[in-house]
Write a structure and sequence with these properties.
By secondary structure, this protein is of the alpha/beta class. The protein has 20 helices and eight strands.
Length: about 500
């Protein structure tokens, strides 16, 4: 594979726009590599962003709420190999194009390693789009509420809290103290596993002009009275995030405060953390959360004091975030250089739900041209029973009853018929869903034996290898699968 273009290699359209000049102080806290790789803010055309997102393909949607959300976020790739996140607003969100451009340019002037920085925008006709750095390792909500491999460690939760406080403190110092609807979906993880605050929430009038779209139980009390966001409102929302980190759940502040007042703070704590933190540390973080959640806005701490308090609580500071998170440093960026298909990307980030959707959608179509059980006549009752077990397995697989699917597919496979690779692929994923990566790897390899040029078999092997911690082998297998799929698509 040829050398990739530099991330700063000038794409032809970037040369036609004058980047916003950045003060050197705006890169404070940023590493030298950040200064070298984050471009200045520029305006893009709608066509450039359409091409970058493959026509705003549903396969490129990365926002938590999917294509029916009023403002959808897409993953995109520019011609200079830079991966981006593109937020496309509902047409009614920003009727004043001048206001949109002014807001975007102001937010785009910020540069900090605690932010997923805004690098551009598009304002053409009714279209309003924002362009930000792409963060490949999902949201805090995913890692905290919907984890699959491991719960988030105590040291990492403390680091998330500190980094977010530092992001808010930086923005406040730059005159952007207001952040709209701060929640666990606005916290993203970069390729090193470090948490970053999404720049999108810094835009005024975001979310169709509404500052809060979450359940009213989590809304700052003064917003309920006035409908206005203040700097103190942001600190209140930060308090709800501290509750998320403590509990591993999205607990309404009123309920949490009742527990705190009743000295029952241990009931708040995530059961997965038992034995992994000291009572003193837990008590201090609960105290900090309760200060942020004070009813009277003036009684809440400011971001700078939050940073000071959280620095004192940090643990395992010498351990990189990617180790604490259980992800491989650079895995996402290395895989991205392959220009992965949605299937390959799902395997890279171990998104088993997405893999299930892909396998279910494709069905047995990929078996065309391969001798398999579907072409057999049902000669005997015994054969009928065996085939019924496959049908029951398919039904269970569709219903996400993966233990049942394993049992049924095993009966079918043990029946001695010529088994299609799709059956092995489905049992492979079912094994992964049941945390049985070794068995999953065996099935993926068996699928490859039956169909040596089937990219799905390679993708699933990569997923199993990632689960086993064999990342180098997984990357090579992923590359093989990507190459095979590209060959197949070039012939069709």
């Amino acid at each position: 594979m040829g050398a990739r273009c530099s991330r700063l290699s000038g794409c032809w359209w970037e040369s036609q726009f004058k980047p916003t000049d950045l003060e050197s102080s705006d890169l404070e806290n940023g590493s030298k590599s950040n200064q070298e790789t984050i471009p200045g803010f520029c305006e893009y055309t709608f066509e450039q962003l359409r091409v970058a997102t493959s026509g705003f393909s549903v396969d490129n949607i990365v926002s938590e709420h999917g294509e029916k959300a009023p403002n959808v976020v897409y993953k995109g790739k520019l011609s200079n190999d830079r991966f981006i996140a593109v937020k496309r607003f509902h047409k009614a969100a920003w009727p004043d194009s001048r206001q949109f451009l002014e807001e975007a340019k102001t937010v785009g002037h910020l540069r900090n390693e605690r932010l997923a920085n805004l690098i551009g925008c598009c304002c053409e006709g009714d279209e309003r789009l924002l362009v930000a750095e792409f963060m490949p390792n999902e949201t805090l909500a995913k890692h905290l509420f919907h984890w699959e491999a491991q719960p988030m460690k105590w040291a990492m939760r403390l680091r998330v809290a500190l980094y977010l406080a530092e992001a808010l403190d930086y923005c406040s110092g730059k005159g952007r103290a207001l952040y709209h609807d701060l929640n666990a979906y606005r916290v993203l993880f970069d390729q090193d596993g470090n948490p970053r605050l999404s720049c999108f929430g810094l835009m005024k009038n975001s979310r169709d002009g509404k500052s809060y779209s979450t359940n009213l139980a989590f809304t700052p009390p003064e917003y309920m009275r006035t409908g206005r966001v203040t700097a103190e409102s942001v600190v209140y929302s930060f308090g709800t995030l501290l509750l998320d980190l403590l509990s591993g759940k999205h607990i309404p502040p009123s309920h949490a405060l009742d527990l705190i007042r009743g000295k029952n703070f241990l009931m708040l704590m995530d059961s997965c953390l038992e034995g992994h933190f000291s009572n003193d540390d837990g008590t201090e973080l609960v105290r900090l959360a309760s200060r942020c959640l004070q009813y009277e806005a003036r009684e809440r701490p400011n971001p700078k004091s939050l940073v000071t308090a959280l620095i004192a609580l940090q643990k395992d500071t010498e351990v990189p975030s990617y180790e604490l998170m259980g992800i491989s440093q650079g895995t996402a960026s290395a895989a991205e250089s392959l220009t992965l298909t949605p299937f390959g990307e799902a395997c890279t980030r171990m998104d088993l739900t997405a893999i299930h959707e892909i396998l279910e959608k494709v069905g047995y179509k990929d078996d065309e041209g391969i001798a398999n059980e579907l072409s057999f006549q049902m000669w005997t009752n015994q054969m009928q029973e065996t085939l019924n077990s496959k049908k029951h397995g398919d039904t269970a697989f569709r219903a996400k009853e993966f233990s049942t699917a394993i049992e049924c597919y095993t009966v079918f496979i043990d029946g001695g018929t010529m088994v299609s690779p799709t059956v092995f692929a489905r049992r492979c994923l079912s094994y992964l869903m049941n945390d049985m990566p070794q068995e999953a790897l065996g099935d993926a390899m068996q699928a490859q034996v039956i169909s040596p040029d089937w990219s799905t078999a390679f993708y699933l092997q990569a997923a199993a290898l990632f689960s086993l911690g064999m990342d180098t082998d997984a990357q090579e297998t992923l590359k093989d699968g990507t190459t095979l799929e590209a060959k197949k698509n070039s012939k069709s």
